[in-house]
Amino acid sequence: MNPGTSINGEEASTSTDIGNRRLRMLFYAQLSKRYLIVTHFGINNQTFTNGGASGSTGTGGYGQGKKPGMFFHDVWNEYGVVLPQADKKFSLSIGGGLHYYMGLSRMTMSSTLNYLAVDAPI
Fold it and tell me: Nearest-CA neighbor of 71 among 95, 48, 54?
């Protein structure tokens, strides 16, 4: 480390840190044949020495201590008005809530739920 480097206000010659790039929780509840609830929330870029929520306290620009910025990506529900059947090609579902898509199509935004072993190039 550079001479004069400080961590939490104390001079340090070495430092060790653990970080999470993306930490997600997904809850998927099919309560009946007709009703579905999806909740997806998470934290981005959380470490012990930097990161944290904007406006909270943390090492660096926010001071000492860490408070993760948890936020919801998706919170929505769906109700099947007309259920799909083998002899019919028509089904109808209605729903609403907060979703992770930006635009008229769900294909306009990449989803973090679909990354297997490769991270998004940001």
Answer: 54
